[in-house]
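Researcher: Quick test of sequence recovery. C-alpha cells follow.
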C-alpha cells in the first residue's frame, strides 16, 4: 500500500528527530553545547509533522478502517492501544513544553522535567513505531480487503496533497536536516 510506504518513511524521519531530542536532552544534562530555543522547534515538529500529519492519517484513516474491518483487532484492543500511546505521547510533549518554559524562566530544576519527558517520549515513540512497522502495518496489508486498501490510499493521498500544498513536509524535513547537523553524536 502506497499510504503505508509513506508512513514507514515518516517513521524514519520521526526517529531521526527522536535522536536529536535525546541528544539535546543529554547536552542540557551535561551542560554541553545547545540552543534552548531549538526545543520549541522540535516540539513544533512533533506536533505538526509526527502528530497532526502522521498520527492524523493513522487515527482518522488507517486505524479507523482497521477497527471497522478487522474484528479480531478491534476486540483485542490492539488498535485502541495505539490511540492510547499517541495520547500518552501528547502528554509527555505537553509536560516537556512546561519544563522548557519553567527552565527558560530560571527554574534550574525544570531541566529534570525536560530530560525526563524527552526520554519518556523518545522511548515510547520508538517502541510504538517498531510495533507499527512490524505488526500493525503488516496486519493492514494482509487482512484488509482490496477496496478498503484503495480507499485508505486515496484518503491518505488527499491529506498528503493538502499538506504538500501548505508546505508542511518541506518545512519540517528542512528543520530536521538543520537539527540533525546541530545535534550530531559523532
Ligand atoms: Fe502511531
Ligand atoms: Fe506511526
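Model:
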Amino acid at each position: 500500500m502506497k499510504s503505508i510506504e509513506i508512513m514507514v518513511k515518516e517513521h524514519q524521519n520521526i526517529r531521526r528527530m527522536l535522536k536529536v531530542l535525546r541528544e539535546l536532552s543529554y547536552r542540557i544534562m551535561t551542560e554541553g553545547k545547545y540552543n534552548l530555543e531549538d526545543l520549541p522547534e522540535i516540539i513544533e515538529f512533533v506536533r505538526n509533522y509526527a502528530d497532526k500529519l502522521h498520527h492524523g492519517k493513522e487515527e482518522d484513516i488507517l486505524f479507523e478502517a482497521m477497527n471497522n474491518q478487522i474484528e479480531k483487532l478491534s476486540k483485542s484492543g490492539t488498535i485502541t492501544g495505539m490511540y492510547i500511546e499517541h495520547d500518552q505521547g501528547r502528554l509527555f510533549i505537553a509536560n516537556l513544553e512546561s519544563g522548557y518554559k519553567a527552565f527558560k524562566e530560571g527554574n534550574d530544576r525544570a531541566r529534570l522535567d525536560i530530560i525526563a519527558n524527552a526520554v519518556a517520549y523518545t522511548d515510547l515513540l520508538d517502541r510504538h513505531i517498531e510495533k507499527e512497522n512490524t505488526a500493525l502495518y503488516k496486519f493492514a496489508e494482509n487482512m484488509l480487503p482490496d477496496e478498503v486498501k484503495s480507499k485508505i490510499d486515496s484518503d491518505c493521498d488527499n491529506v498528503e496533497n493538502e499538506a504538500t500544498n501548505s508546505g508542511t513536509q518541506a518545512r519540517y524535513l528542512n528543520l530536521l536536516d538543520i537539527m540533525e547537523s546541530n545535534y550530531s553524536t559523532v
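The mean pLDDT is 97.
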